[in-house]
Automatic annotation (TrEMBL):
The protein, known as: GTP cyclohydrolase 1
Gene3D superfamilies membership: 1.10.286.10, 3.30.1130.10
Catalysed reaction, written as an equation: GTP + H2O = 7,8-dihydroneopterin 3'-triphosphate + formate + H(+)
UniProt GO MF annotations: GTP cyclohydrolase I activity
Membrane-spanning ranges: none
Pathway: Cofactor biosynthesis; 7,8-dihydroneopterin triphosphate biosynthesis; 7,8-dihydroneopterin triphosphate from GTP: step 1/1
Top EC class of this enzyme: hydrolase
Domain GTP cyclohydrolase I intervals: 57-229
Lineage: Bacteria, Pseudomonadati, Bacteroidota, Flavobacteriia, Flavobacteriales
Length: 232
């Protein structure tokens, strides 16, 4: 497969050398937990990115000796490009960040609220294979209440990036703290990494658990209460 002139120009015009990585992209959370991105990450349109990824992925398939004229394979480079930009890595682009409506806490509910068992699919940034898990998020209202579905949407937004579980956990925790204007936020993630189970060490039984405990959740009693809710 040949890279056509136009596409080659686009590729060359956008320095694909990833060595000069800077922290950029998450301007909404200036916490040092940002996904490392180049400053020009969003100079190209989604369509331009898909066009280039399709060519490059086609090259990978070609190098592996796959016949790109085969009926079943010929659409794969475009399918992968669309999947990367519109689906599994759509959370890299702040324009896809969920809009969150907040309400006044008129209900006077002042205990923790736990949204548990939020299933997510992410991808490991080292191998680009799936991370599949459950997130449990909790907060204690400081006067604002968030729509329940928005908790799920925030988890999905940060999951849809090349990730490590530690960063995913902290990004969700920090984002919720900012939105809800409280430190009293907790996030627990329990996930399986296919890079550990399907390849490499091939351990099918292990799982990885990470936690973010802010404010009131730094108390062993509160952590205990949270775990009781999750394990109910
Ligand atoms: N801390 C952390 N490590 C991760 C995560 N996902 C994958 N990894 C690990 O990242 C490491 C990458 O290590 P390398 O030695 O460069 O990669 P590798 O040679 O493919 O390693 P193996 O998986 O052991 O075959 C591996 O140990 C992965 O298990 C994550 O979310 N957090
Ligand atoms: Zn991995």
């Amino acid at each position: 497969m040949k890279i056509n002139g136009d596409i080659l120009e686009k590729i060359n015009g956008h320095d694909l050398n990833l060595l000069s990585v800077e922290e950029f992209g998450d301007d909404h959370i200036s916490t040092g937990m940002e996904t490392p991105m180049r400053p020009d990450a969003f100079d190209m349109s989604d369509q331009q990115k898909k066009d280039i990824i399709a060519v490059l992925f086609g090259e990978i398939m070609d190098v592996m000796g796959l016949d790109l004229t085969d009926d079943s394979l010929k659409g794969t480079p475009q399918r992968v490009a669309k999947m990367y930009i519109d689906e599994i890595f759509s959370g890299l682009n702040p324009k896809n960040k969920p809009k969150v409506a907040l309400f006044e806490n008129k209900y006077r509910y002042n205990q923790m609220l736990v949204e548990k068992n939020i299933t997510f699919y992410s991808n490991c940034e080292h191998h680009f294979v799936p991370i599949i898990g459950k997130a449990h998020v909790a907060y204690i209202s400081s006067g604002k209440v968030i729509g329940l579905s928005k908790l799920n949407r925030i988890v999905q937004y940060y999951a849809k990036r090349p990730q490590v579980q530690e960063r995913l956990t902290n990004q969700i925790g920090k984002e919720l703290s900012e939105i809800l204007e409280t430190d009293d936020v907790a996030v627990i993630i329990d996930a399986k990494h296919l890079c550990v189970s399907s390849r490499g060490i091939k351990d099918e039984t292990s799982a990885t658990v990470t936690a973010f405990y802010g404010g009131a959740f730094n108390d062993p009693q509160k952590i205990n209460e949270l775990h009781n809710y999750i394990n109910q």
